[in-house]
């Protein structure tokens, strides 16, 4: 079920306790390495925005309260940005900035937030969150307050992904 | 009072309301552009880790519950990562990765978190937060839960900055 795993990882942090910190040493154990949303190329999945140079750009299904929130999943199983070779991290940065420019063009947000965390799923991925002045707490990180998990349907997600894609 | 402004910006998010979102159009209005911790070069300030290629690396005074938390302040007043020319953002990325490697060598954290937010102070800066398995909520973003604001003294900060600096 494409996307189910990815939804789960974005929700799972709150449920885990200290002793459950994932020890993910290889792609064989990694949820992201196994998720068809990432492994199956092409644009069939409603969350898929694009295959970029060294990463896959997808909508973050759970964070659409911040409309246009997306993430880039790096093509290989790496845990830390600085473990990449400089050329690779520059290409990843270029993917992130290309997506940022497209999100900016699509939604004209007041600010863009970038986060590379990986606490719950330590496969390198880069969050991009558009912020508006109309946000309830615009000067705070989105994690500081609970926000509604909108249930966008597949067609709505597809339309959103398409909007961003045309501005890439 | 070097550092006071920077401390303030990192605390100020919680107090501001929607209508107070800063509109910082130029360096003349920017707190970071005016902060002596950034403008005065050299290592005199207890929070200062190093002057890097295109940014200043400093300890985050308020986040030392996550020991070693630091940030890189970009040398010019820019608000968004993708507004930089590719060469500049690559150099900024290299500064971030150099600091990340030093923080990793110094503290051997379980994970490193990166965040480029700028909601409260929209002058490009890059947060680096070492995460441990002993963190109270190791799989969550640090903003999801309150954490103590440790009051490290200047000598403690200097020692911490020096530890990281020797591993750069």
Tell me briefly what this model is:
Chain A has 168 residues and is an alpha+beta fold. Chain A contains 5 helices and 5 strands, in the order αααβββαββα. The first copy, chain A, has helices at residues 4-12, 31-34, 36-39, 86-107, 154-166, and strands spanning 48-51, 55-59, 70-74, 111-116, 125-131.
Provide an overview of this structure.
2 copies of one chain form a homodimer. Residues 1-5 and 7-21 of chain A have low confidence and may be disordered. Chain A has a 5-stranded antiparallel β-sheet. In chain A, helix 4 packs across helix 5 (154-166). The two termini of chain A are 27 Å apart. In chain A, strand 1 and strand 2 form a beta hairpin. The first copy, chain A, has a single domain (4-166), classed as HIT-like (HIT family, subunit A). Chain A contains 5 helices and 5 strands, in the order H-H-H-E-E-E-H-E-E-H. The longest helix of chain A has 22 residues, at 86-107. The first copy, chain A, has 168 residues and is α+β, with helices and mostly antiparallel strands. Chain A is 31% helix and 16% strand. At the A-B interface, helix 4 and strand 4 of A face helix 4 and strand 4 of B. Strand 4 of chain A pairs antiparallel with strand 4 (111-116) of chain B.
């Amino acid at each position: 079920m494409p996307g189910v795993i990815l939804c789960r990882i974005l929700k799972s942090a709150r449920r885990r306790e200290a002793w459950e910190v994932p020890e993910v040493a290889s792609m064989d154990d990694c949820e992201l390495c196994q998720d068809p949303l990432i492994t199956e190329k092409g644009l069939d999945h409603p969350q898929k925005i694009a295959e970029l140079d060294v990463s896959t750009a997808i909508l973050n299904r759970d964070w659409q309260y911040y409309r246009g929130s997306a993430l880039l999943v790096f093509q290989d199983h790496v845990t830390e940005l600085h473990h990449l070779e400089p050329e690779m991290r520059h290409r990843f940065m270029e993917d992130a900035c290309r997506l940022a420019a497209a999100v900016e063009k699509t939604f004209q947000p007041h600010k863009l937030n970038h986060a590379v965390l990986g606490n719950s799923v330590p496969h390198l991925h880069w969050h991009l969150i558009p912020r508006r002045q109309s946000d309830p707490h615009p000067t705070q990180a989105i994690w500081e307050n609970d926000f509604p998990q909108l249930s966008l349907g597949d067609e709505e997600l597809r339309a959103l992904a398409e909007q961003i894609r045309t501005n890439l």
